[in-house]
Amino acid sequence: MYRNIAYLSFDRLYPAALSFISVMYLAEYLGVDKFGELSALLTFISIASVVSYFGTNETFTKVIAQGGDISQVYREYLFFRFLLILVLFMIGYLYSIFIGGGFYILLLMLSIILSPFQLSQSVCEFYHKAKIIAISRFFVTTLFFSFKMFAIFRDLGIEVLMLITALEYLFVFILATLYVKLYFIVDASQAIEALKVRSIAILSLPFFVNSFVVVASSRVDQVMLLVMEDFSSLGVYSMGLRFSEFWLVLPSAIITLSMASLSSRMSNGSEARDLFLYLLMVNIMRFMFILSFFIIVVIFFVFEYILDSAFYLGLYIAILLMLSSLFSQMRVVTGKVMLLNGDGSTILKRSLSAILINIILNALLITLFGPIGAAIATLITSIYIGFLFDMISVSYKFIFKVKLEAFSSIFKTSLWLDDFNQFKNIVVSRK
Known about the structure:
Number of helices: 19
Low-confidence stretches: none
Mean pLDDT: 75
Number of strands: 0
Radius of gyration: 22 Å
Distance between the termini: 15 Å
Oligomer: single chain
Largest sheet: none
Order of helices and strands: HHHHHHHHHHHHHHHHHHH
């Protein structure tokens, strides 16, 4: 189990680090306008990926956990996700009409075609075979990172870079799918009932709605920048966003790996639950505070010595979004509690209200301050969804009190070691 946790953590951190490096040099290579075009494409891909999942990742593991036949369930879910390709191609077509295509559209179409095979990764992770995914991704990511850097420094053109990225997607999914087919001996010859496909759609719909709303709320700023400003503004904003996203890789992994302990503590009463939530949040805040010094040094170095001066506004955007991401992690913790409580309706209400606030703030602040305004809007929305929502929610006011205690204890250095050891012992024991 501990090895599986280590592989999962490494699988997140290593590709993120290489992606972070390649994006910096890619931004410098493309320039602010072209990087904005690429960022617009990646925003559309993130939205399209939610449609391609359609909540099936959650329901797939649920059906398998209930004793479903892996071969039959895998085929049915794979077939259902292939049907979604038709919808995704329509998204790609609309993108090419309203945004423009060129060679960028190849990456979007490849990600659409390959999206059903991401189900193979869910199989490996569910059966604690993360080692397979981690090792496969390590070799593929390292190999194609080398290809990307070679293409950038040799000035081979954006077409070659997009082709390398598309091939990287292809290799990862081929390896995962081959493993599933060999290990679980999936029989593709059996017929798939239409009724089964319909039941998958009905079962997965609530998860899809929640996931789509969450992703939409996190992309409002980029979409509105594209609509209200131009590719240049989106490029500057996206560069700042990349730093804050890299900052969240390890905190997000800590929260994910704490889910089993959180579930156990919630069943042991409110006192045990509140103690674990406090330890989880205060340790994440302290970890992010310490890590922020390193990230800020990297930010100043990158914007000063690597990126073109046209990106310089992204430095201040990165700092604002890093502060925003602190509250975003608090949102994730509350969301995990709601999920364990089966309170999907509150998750949906919270996300919808955040989207509305984010749209209004972006419309006002982008007009006044451009990309900086979008970052301020994101910060205010994150404070609402990660902190203030709990205060006005009757059912989750207890989390607001725990967060207040965690915030007030961040700089109490005398508690750092004891809080960390207590948190580590709970997570390791899973009690």
